[in-house]
Amino acid sequence: MPAPSAGLYMDDTYYNQYPPGMKMTDGVPDELREVIHTHWDNFSPPNPLIAHFFGVMFFFLWIINFFGNGLVIFIFSKVKTLRTPSNMFVINLALSDLFMMTTMGPLVTINVFMQRYWAWGVFGCKLYGCIGAVCGVVSILTMVVIGYDRYNVIVKGLNGFKISAGKALGIILSIWFYSITISGLALFDVWGGYTVEGLLFTCSYDYLTDDVNNTTYVLFTFMFMYVLPMSLVFFFYSSIVKAVWAHEMNLKQQAKKMNVESLRSNVDSNAESAEIRIAKVAVTNVSLWAGIWTPYTIVVLMAVLGSRSSITPLMSQIPSFVAKTASCLNPIVYAMSHPKYREALMKEVPCLGIEEHVPQETVTTKEPVKA
């Protein structure tokens, strides 16, 4: 093996001593070139430790995802009182997230320790990208519907649109049909496509190919899978926060008129009100949405708008990985914030140490104001 040049990695165990001028795409089979953009020819091979790090992280995401979403499906399916039309959307979100990481996590983990580029062939890359797209779109649209459902109940109340089990099922099936149709077009190269991205061991939307077909597809997904859903989620949850705040202020005014400290039915006067919990969950939902999906969207837009030269393998890989963490956080945000789910979890899986206190009816009075 030749002596390493200055600036090169020097770990013989990881075979990092590559000759000057070597590209990260050198050694890739010719048949795989179909799904590897020439943009990645501009970069030297990265330290394999980086790929191994992502492989280990994908494995842990898969485990967390499996237990988190599996627990959501188990509890909501077993406890009859939780089988409501609204909770059907939460179950759908858990199923989508579970399916995504179950199909992706093991493949990536095996891949990075087997070889330094995509190991599952051209169609495997397209199928991997398509599954990720389908599940991602299903999860995004389901979160929009969950936001609408909560907006409908909290803000609209009795005047809101009543969602029955049949309607909920119809909405869920429509989401899957839409997601599979749009993502399937790219799978068969009808509109858009999927290619290897970043460090060459995952696949996603082809946002680097500069032609009308791919550009219009990426812009379509940007508008209808990010901008529009994000706007709707922001509207629903901001309306919820606004309504909750107005209700909170109204309760305080009523309590003041009745000369009581609080109208809340809590034994502990310091306990957090249900309305405040709802508001916090709403703010958390919007913040996580923006924090998880925006970095990936920025990278995609940079490529589409012509700033490809600044997109490095690591810059492409990190946002893609961050987007996958949504599948692990969704059970926490959408299920663990559900008081009845926490109660059921406390009963069915007591070893987790979950505690949910059920408030009792009471009204705390104040001492009369002395003149």
Automatic annotation (TrEMBL):
Record field: transmembrane: 49-77, 89-114, 126-148, 168-188, 217-237, 286-306
Keywords carried by this UniProt record: Chromophore, Disulfide bond, G-protein coupled receptor, Membrane, Phosphoprotein, Photoreceptor protein, Receptor, Retinal protein, Sensory transduction, Transducer, Transmembrane, Transmembrane helix, Vision
Principal subcellular localization: membrane
Subcellular location: Membrane
GO cellular component: membrane
Domain of life: Eukaryota
Membrane topology, as annotated: Multi-pass membrane protein
GO biological process: phototransduction; visual perception
All residue ranges annotated as the G-protein coupled receptors family 1 profile domain in the record: 68-334
GO molecular function, one term: photoreceptor activity
Alphabetical list of PROSITE patterns matching this protein: G_PROTEIN_RECEP_F1_1, G_PROTEIN_RECEP_F1_2, OPSIN
Family that this chain belongs to: Belongs to the G-protein coupled receptor 1 family.
Name used for this protein in its record: G-protein coupled receptors family 1 profile domain-containing protein
Organism: Caligus rogercresseyi
